[in-house]
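Long-time lurker, first post. I've been practising inverse folding by hand and with some scripts of my own, and I keep getting stuck on stretches where the structure tokens seem ambiguous. Below is the full token string for one chain I'm working on. Before anyone asks, I'm not after the true native sequence, just a reasonable design that respects the backbone. If someone could post their per-position residues I'd love to compare against what I wrote down in my notebook.
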């Protein structure tokens, strides 16, 4: 919506305002100064009567949203904006993960201009979904790490982290280290809101020695670090037994080496396999569709954040294979669980890329507490990708943005949390 020119003072009048700290105000007025969109500086938040008395209220530009719920902007903790050009694509979960990987390998762009255009479209669709910060995976076309997604996000000054993805297993470990070091040196000195981070792809494509190297590098250089973890049955089979379609895939690429079996094929779960490196750096791990009690304990003890991507898990049929995702038990164990969308390929919303739609799925399917969902969408997401959590609250001061969702009118029933109305409505989230 981008209300008002930069520097102007807005008065947003809404049905209610709430954030992930538990703050609720209904009805609500917010006085805010427009910064570079979507950022705003919050000057006052409260009941309209209190705001009337504020000295800036008389001349503020009114933004009347009498049927909307206003919240901080959302964080998408795990996405792949460089795949946006592919769009939502149906997939038969029974055809296996490797067939899907082949689809992506064929459809993804390798030309920098094309990758940049896809990421720019991803930024537009993120904003169309009320998202002001992302944990975006800068994918590696043909297995070669690529800075174009980072540069595109940085040029747009999009808040968050671009996680530089790399693969390195078998014969490719040393080359991978060299390339990643070289690309990291090219990012030094950038002062934009987009940070660079590291993304060893997954335990079935990255040797544990390379994970250790990346974790040490992340720790010493204070870089955010992320990985896919415990996502598919193929990954679990490969890690436990060193066999299956994932091994065939590596052999087909000509990068299989028997030294892989030093660390793979010893009956471990993916989380147990990675446990030593998870405690070496503050990881953000995507998915964790399969987690036994020991895995939850490992993630909690190591301070690992989880990006749960509910629509991606449903798209790949993860629940049929592993049972319901244990995100609520993870939260109870003290794990910082955020929401991600994964790529647009597995989404059912062609016009936006937003974890708000994943929160709606959890609300509908599991009846999850709306405040928990709001926290996962804002504070937990910010913590997971290493940005200031205060920017995703209604505390006074600079914020990454505000979102309005039209709740369609009056508050029904017995005093529900206002965010439940936003979740239940079919309305689009709008960045103010
Ligand atoms: Zn992913």
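-- Answer (accepted) --
I ran through it position by position. Result:
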């Amino acid at each position: 919506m981008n209300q008002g020119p930069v520097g102007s003072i807005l008065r947003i009048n809404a049905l209610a305002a709430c954030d992930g700290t538990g703050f609720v105000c209904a009805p609500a007025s917010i006085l805010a100064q427009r910064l570079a969109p979507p950022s705003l500086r919050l000057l006052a938040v409260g009941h309209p009567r209190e705001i009337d008395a504020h000295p800036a209220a008389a001349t503020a530009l009114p933004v009347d949203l009498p049927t909307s719920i206003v919240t901080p902007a959302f964080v998408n903790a795990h996405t792949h904006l460089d795949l946006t050009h592919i769009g939502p694509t149906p997939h038969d979960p029974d055809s296996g993960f490797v067939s899907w990987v082949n689809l992506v390998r064929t459809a993804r762009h390798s030309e920098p201009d094309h990758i940049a255009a896809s990421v720019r479209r991803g930024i537009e669709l993120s904003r169309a979904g009320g998202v002001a910060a992302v944990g975006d995976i800068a994918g590696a076309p043909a297995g070669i790490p690529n800075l174009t997604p980072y540069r595109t996000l940085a040029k747009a000054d999009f808040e968050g982290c671009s996680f530089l993805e790399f693969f390195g297993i078998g014969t490719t470990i040393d080359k991978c280290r060299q390339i990643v070091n070289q690309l990291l040196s090219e990012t030094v000195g950038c002062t934009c809101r987009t940070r660079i981070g590291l993304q060893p792809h997954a335990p079935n494509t990255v040797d544990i020695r390379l994970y250790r190297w990346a974790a040490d590098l992340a720790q010493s250089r204070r870089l955010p670090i992320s990985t896919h973890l415990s996502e598919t049955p193929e990954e679990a089979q490969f890690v436990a037994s060193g066999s299956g379609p994932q091994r065939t895939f590596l052999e087909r690429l000509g990068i299989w080496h028997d030294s892989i079996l030093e660390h793979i094929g010893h009956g471990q779960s993916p989380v147990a396999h990675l446990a030593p490196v998870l405690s070496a750096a503050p990881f953000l791990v995507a998915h964790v569709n399969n987690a036994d009690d020991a895995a939850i304990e490992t993630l909690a003890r190591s301070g690992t954040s989880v990006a749960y991507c509910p629509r991606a898990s449903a798209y790949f049929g993860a629940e049929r294979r592993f049972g319901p995702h244990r995100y609520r038990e993870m939260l109870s164990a003290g794990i910082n669980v955020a929401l991600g969308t994964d790529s647009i390929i597995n989404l059912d919303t062609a016009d936006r890329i937003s974890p708000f739609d994943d929160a709606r799925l959890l609300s509908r399917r599991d009846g999850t507490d709306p405040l928990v969902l709001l926290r996962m969408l804002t504070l937990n997401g910010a913590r997971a990708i290493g940005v200031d959590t205060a920017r995703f609250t209604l505390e006074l001061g600079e914020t990454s943005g505000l979102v309005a969702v039209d709740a369609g009118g009056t508050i029904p029933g017995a005093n529900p949390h206002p965010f439940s109305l936003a979740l239940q409505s079919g309305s689009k989230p709008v960045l103010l």
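A couple of notes from the structure itself: The first helix runs from residue 48 to 52. The longest strand covers residues 61-72. Happy to go over any region you disagree with.
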